[in-house]
Automatic annotation (TrEMBL):
It comes from the Archaea. Keywords: Chromophore, FAD, Flavoprotein. The lineage of its organism: Archaea, Methanobacteriati, Methanobacteriota, Stenosarchaea group, Halobacteria. Coiled coil: none annotated. The record marks W316, W369, W392 as: Electron transfer via tryptophanyl radical. GO terms for biological process: nucleobase-containing compound metabolic process; response to stress. This is Deoxyribodipyrimidine photo-lyase. InterPro entries: Crypto/Photolyase_FAD-like_sf, Crypto/Photolyase_N_sf, Cryptochr/Photolyase_FAD-bd, Cryptochrome/DNA_photolyase_1, DNA_photolyase_1_CS_C, DNA_photolyase_N, Rossmann-like_a/b/a_fold. One of its GO terms (molecular function) is FAD binding. It comes from Natronoarchaeum mannanilyticum. Residues 170-216 are annotated as: Disordered.
Length: 483
DNA sequence: TTGATATTAGT
DNA sequence: CTAATATCA
């Protein structure tokens, strides 16, 4: 053994998708053992899969995190390169005995982490990884037979009833190691790189403020009010009665135990059964996130393959023009177009609308869900492999939670039901601002002359929903092989 | 203990 | 229809 003990030796905490110091399991564990120096590595292999909105949010979060450490006499080391080389090099230069990090459950990250473990072993540096990103670790929630769940509801019941960890404490200032600048190896960066330094354009979308403080503000805001109306209003996109924590949970600018704790506190203040149920409905959304993390952990191939087996290949259509119209928010289905424009403008889409635009692409246009998933990955600030893949495959009827009736959304009915006053549509589709809500909901079925009169600049529908519905049913019946 | 069958529910 | 569980022979 190169080191007799890790009790007093310096340690590195490798930040990845946990851009916070509070409620951070690996960081807390390291700080208990001795001084710890935090480090973030700009990994080109990861940046290759990234996009401007996500990197912009990440850089803002890193600045907040670095400030947090500065204010306590520490520093967040920044480095660029392959973590297999960077981490052993920093450990060597600073004489660190151990590197710790929190586990990431996506397939690519797991491969990278295994390679980093081998590199550290070769360099005789100790390492440890911790379960942190979700409340209940993959493998900890199984059926009575010990299998992994593929239906959400049963998973939720077990998830809900299981005891949960409290948030972990942030390290004390005296547990933070601040290395001498002269000791730092060449791979470290003196300052935070810009988007341009990393080879990215400025994002088209406006990016929300990132970091632990704005994340906590969002959580506190939500728990003071909207969480009690969540069950009733969460599906109305104009209300935006949601937590808006998706990007924070993706980047770990807030810990999920802290989020759960805050919702449990809110539950204690609930006024009546309906408010309690509303809080539980939100907690159930946290469980969805964990359900999909488990699914991805045990089925890493779902990033590119259907979760559900069909007898024959699904005959997706190659329709570049329709795909482009969908991306541009020019399909002539108002609520679909509003959602796709929100995606471009904000790097975010309300969840109900995500399901709706995904159903439109995969069922009305019969375009492969992978095309939609790729576009979301490019544009969403909160893109998370597990959640987005789970959502897309659910909408495409290739995922978990198979249902007896075939899942096709009617975009007109959905608009009427969830955006009755067309407030959401008008917010993102200015061409329709002077139209009546009724005209907006019925837009695809109006006469051409009528459409020309109401909003000459807004497109006619690119497909006929009723026709495409039949076509989708035929396509999926053929794939099932039971026609 | 096992296997067949009923029950429940599906963002 | 299917998954998971409960029930019963």
């Amino acid at each position: 053994m190169p080191h007799e003990s890790s009790e007093a030796g310096m340690q590195l905490h490798w930040h990845r998708r946990d851009l916070r110091a509070d409620d951070n399991r690996a960081l807390a564990a390291a700080a208990e053992d001795g001084p710890v120096c935090p480090v973030f590595v700009f990994d080109d292999a990861v940046l290759d899969h990234a996009s401007p909105p996500r990197v912009a949010f990440m850089l803002d979060a890193l600045l907040s995190l670095r400030t947090w450490y500065w204010e306590r006499g520490g520093d967040l080391l920044l480095a660029r390169g392959d973590p297999r080389e960077v981490l052993p090099a920093i450990a060597d230069a600073l004489d660190a005995e151990r590197v710790v990090w929190n586990k990431d459950y996506s397939g690519l990250a797991r491969e990278r982490d295994a390679a980093v473990r081998r590199a550290l072993d070769d360099a005789d540096v100790e390492r440890a990884s911790y379960h942190d990103a979700i409340i209940h670790e993959p493998g900890s929630i199984t059926t009575n037979e010990g299998d992994h769940y593929s239906v959400y509801t049963y998973f939720w019941k077990k998830w809900r009833d299981r005891a949960k960890d409290d948030p972990f404490p942030a390290p004390d200032a005296d547990a933070l190691a601040s290395p001498e600048p002269d000791d730092l190896p060449d791979v470290t960066l003196p300052s935070l790189p810009t988007l341009d330094d990393l080879g990215f354009e400025e994002p088209e979308a406006s990016i929300p403020e990132a970091g632990p403080e704005p994340a906590r503000d969002r959580l506190a805001d939500f728990c003071e009010g909207d969480i009690y109306r969540y069950e009733e209003r969460r599906d109305y996109p104009a209300d935006e009665c949601t937590s808006r924590l998706s990007a924070d949970l993706k980047w770990g600018t807030i810990g999920v135990r802290e989020v759960y704790d805050a919702t449990d506190d809110a539950k204690a203040f609930a006024d009546g059964e309906a408010e309690i149920e509303s809080v539980e409905e939100f907690q159930s959304q946290l469980a969805w996130r964990e359900f999909y993390a488990h699914v991805l952990n045990f089925n890493p191939e779902v990033v590119s393959e259907n979760f559900k087996d069909y007898e024959h290949e699904i005959e997706w259509r190659s329709d570049p023009e329709a795909l482009q119209a969908w991306k541009d928010g020019e399909t002539g289905y108002p609520i679909v177009d509003a959602g796709m424009r929100q995606l471009r403008e904000e790097g975010y889409v309300h969840n109900r609308v995500r399901m709706l635009v995904a159903a439109f692409l995969t069922k009305d246009l019969l375009v492969d869900w992978r095309e939609g998933y790729d576009w979301f990955r490019e544009k969403l600030v909160d893109h998370d492999t597990a959640n987005d893949n789970g959502g897309w495959q659910w909408a495409a009827s290739t995922g978990t939670d198979a249902q007896p009736y075939f899942r096709i959304f009617n975009p007109m009915t959905q608009g009427e039901r969830y955006d009755p006053d067309a407030e959401y549509v008008k917010r993102y589709v200015p061409e329709l601002r002077d139209a009546d809500p009724e005209q907006i909901h019925d837009w695809p079925e109006l006469a051409d002359a009528e459409r020309e009169r109401i909003a000459p600049d807004y497109p006619a529908p690119i497909v006929d929903h009723a026709e495409r519905r039949e076509l989708a049913i035929e396509t999926f019946e053929a794939a099932r092989g039971d026609d």
